[in-house]
Request: fold
Amino acid sequence: MKLIAKRKFLNSINYFRGIAIILIVMTHSYGVARWNVFNDSGLFEKMFYSFNLNGSVFFVFISGYLYNHIFFPSFNYKNFLIKKAKFVLVPYLICSTLPILYTVFDRNNEWLLNFVFVNGGWGFLPDGLREKPLLAIGWFLITGRAVYAYWFIPMIVIVFVISPLINYLIKSQHLLKTILF
Reply:
């Protein structure tokens, strides 16, 4: 049996992840507060808002870095997918259920839709799906658009599924070429 060295906990990455999460929450708060930065603000506020927009970029970078540090050296696809389903997909499905059902089946309370699900929900549903509840539910699940901030989960699930391809690119030393071209 091959012994695998335990990876050192990277506290600096943990702090960076916390900063990225704070930036992401701040960016999403602008919409909830209905603050139109580009119409109602000076240069400092516009620059601050633009800096906050990088929170998702930082979070994606951190996710890739941690994947390479933790999972890549001793990768087991089945175990990896089981853990990601348990800790990412299931919570996503649980947290998405109420907003999706509310958006699909109770469109009469638009004030609540507009307040709670700002920039998400009904406004992003294609017209052809508005009278097809099951297709609408599926569309919201695969796009994450019932709640605006959930877009990341379906995207990262795709990354989890194609992780063997990512591993191949890392091992073959072609990852940088693939990204650049």
About this structure: The chain has a mean pLDDT of 81.
